[in-house]
Amino acid sequence: MKQTSPTYEAVNPNIGSSFSCFKFLQNENLKSNFWHYHPEIELVFVGGGSGKRQIGSTISYFTKGDLVLIGSNLPHCGLTNENTRNDYEIVVQFLPDFLGAHIWKTPEMKKITNLLDASKGGIVFGESVKKSLESKILEMYEATSLDKLIKFLEILNVLANTEDFKILNAGNFYIQTQVEDNERINLIFNHVKNKFKEQITLEEVANLANMTEPSFCRYFKKITNKTFTQFVNEYRIIHSMKLLAEKPLSINEICYESGFNNFSYFNKTFKEYTQKSPSQYRKEFKNIIE
């Protein structure tokens, strides 16, 4: 059985710039669609489309694009793939001290400093912020030299002052400090990502982590604040939500396509996670779209 190795991603700034800024059309950014980490903070804007948002131990579903800020060394998976149907994606990557250590201690930078600190848990921004910043993010990508930096700081300032956001792993994901933990948890997350449609046993993931089953259970709960079963179920439920919204499959077919082998258990778990039945969710999503 082929295993996906955990990956440390090396990021180099654009030539003549203190940070990196890339634009990918549609699904060009497929290379990032695996669990990885890097010391750079990452701002990602997805123009249109829908897909899975996998940051830290939180897995969720986005529609009409996305805007997220991912902290230094926080494991995450790329937001787009061949099924996202986005128009484009802009990715900005920068080290926490990319402007030097002293500037972040100035009063003018206090809110942005707090924003970057909060990004350790991963932040998703709401629809109003996403809409208001789309043109600014595109302008920043097209700009050069000092103008590019100024536009980027203006974007960070907007993000630092909005209340339309959600921290994805609020105090529950302590993976920033140990590279060894990053590599171990990335290996586990990649395994779940690749095998969630199949049965995944505690024995196999404990072996991947080179731990006994009891030690692995304690370790995973400490790192993610979830049991391994909860994490796998959440991954499967998010996949089922995407299928319910986008595919003309029966709910029974979606149950098995999402890795559940018991229809009653799927219904029960889906309702626990969303407070709705699968049929209710599909109906409400259809009404919103229409």
TrEMBL record:
This protein's record includes keyword Transcription regulation: yes
InterPro entries: Homeodomain-like_sf, HTH_AraC, HTH_AraC-typ_CS, RmlC-like_jellyroll, RmlC_Cupin_sf, Tscrpt_reg_AraC-type_HTH
A Pfam family this chain is assigned to: HTH_18
Keyword entries, A-Z: DNA-binding, Transcription, Transcription regulation
Any one GO molecular function term: sequence-specific DNA binding
Domain HTH araC/xylS-type: 186-284
Name under which the protein is recorded: HTH-type transcriptional activator RhaR
Natural source organism: bioreactor metagenome
Lineage of producing organism: unclassified sequences, metagenomes, ecological metagenomes
Gene (name only): rhaR_3
